[in-house]
Amino acid sequence: MKILGINRAELVVADPNAGADVMSELFGMEFETEITESHGVLSRTDFQSGLELAGPTGGEGSAMQSILDARGEGLLTIVFRVDSIEELLAEAAKKGLEVVVDLDLGDRTPRYKHYRQVSLASERFPAGASFTFAEYEER
Predict the structure, then answer these.
(1) What pTM did the predictor assign?
(2) Residues 97-131: pLDDT tens digits?
(3) CB–CB of 45/22 below 8 Å?
(4) For 22-63, what is each residue's pLDDT tens digit?
(5) 30-36: long-range contacts (C-beta < 8 A, 24 or more apart)?
(6) 56-75: string of b/e by CB count within 10 Å (b at 16+)?
(7) Which of 5, 60, 88, 96 is deepest in the core (most CB within 10 A)?
């Protein structure tokens, strides 16, 4: 598995829409909206700058609300682009790293021909940071 670069930084925020409005006003960023119902996550992403603001959708069981309740707003994860998620998963298993999210969007997004990302538990990473790895092909 080869890391190809940083795709984006994700911040967990209470209100992604308000955060996107502020960043748009200050820096002219253009945010796309995505909702992942299965995790209760509202994401606002400016792919040009590589910034994603993620927060709860307001429904029950939001993964983002749990994080906000435990830690408040701040850095959620850094997303690295990799050439092979399958190789990443094999290496993570060998090294005893827990997969906490495995999100395969396939070809269901307008931006990507295929997209899959995997987040690994952060206990062993520097500064307790979370790292996510994505394999994708842009349209």
Answers:
(1) 0.88
(2) 999 989 998 988 888 999 999 999 888 888 878 89
(3) no
(4) 999 999 999 999 988 878 899 999 999 999 999 999 877 788
(5) 32/111, 34/109, 36/103
(6) bbeeeebbbbebbeeeeeee
(7) 88
